[in-house]
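Hi U.,

Before I forget, here's the chain from the pilot set. I'm dumping it here mostly so it's searchable later in email.
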Amino acid sequence: MFESAEFESLFSQFRDQKVLIIGDVMIDSYLWGSVGRVSPEAPVPVVSGVIEENRLGGAANVALNVKALGAVPILCSVIGDDDRGKLFLELMEEQLLTDIGLVVDNHRLTTQKTRIISGNQHLLRLDEEIDIFLNKRVQDQFIELISNLLESGGIDAIIIQDYDKGVLTPRVISEVISASERVAVPVLVDPKFRSFDLYKKVRLFKPNFKELAKGLDLDIKKNEFEKLSEAVKIFQEKQGIETLLVTLSEQGVLTSQNGEYVHIPAVKRDITDVSGAGDTVIAVAALCTIAGLSPAEVAAISNLAGGQVCETAGVIPISSEKLLEECTEHFKSS
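Structure:
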């Protein structure tokens, strides 16, 4: 494991990396208010003093995490030709993210998740979306765009961020992985169930426990690490996955490579909101992987990062300064 003095050097390496992030994007909309009474019309809370806030979500939040760590993200996705699509582009511009990897589809709805929150209490979420796969014409356009970006050179890693909203079709997944092999760029995947077993020959595969259990039809508990590692090992060999990193929420993370596994416990925290933690983990894991860290080191740093963003309400990217500080302190004392 690391000596604490090495972290500043590691974080400085992130600034030289360019990462392609491919996947489903969305607007995370928040209605912040306070609850003072119950409605006389129905037994539901009345939220008043509402303030609306819109943030980039899904794969776009992965891009924000990559950017927050000092690297250069290029976001590749498909949005709708609608008011939300225009808002999404405005949010991209505000965050100084390039839109060269975006395709606009006039037959598609831009995904929006609206969360109603009082204090730190999440009361309700409304999802407006289309989750059918992209049609052939849009797939052709999207694949060509990604191929051109890869072949232009300078890409250090690809993150595939699957939110199961239809952008990552079986063909898109296959073509991206094939293109990555041609240009020798590592692929790291944050999967969802629908396409779980389509990800083959990737550098790192990062499901959470729920996704893994569903994808492999497992009936085990999070803390049964030996059983978990055996199931993971079989899946890895079948799929040709180099490293598998499973996030286990309160149980920390488990990483597996070459038939060996390491379990890293979670750090005790005051958890406020787990939304977006997976986005942070895959972003940190990608940058640590291309910096040449071992799977155990990647898992340990990603574990800290995922926990940090759970201490704040709403989907937010990691703070590079805060993560550097905690890494330095944590590994000094461990």
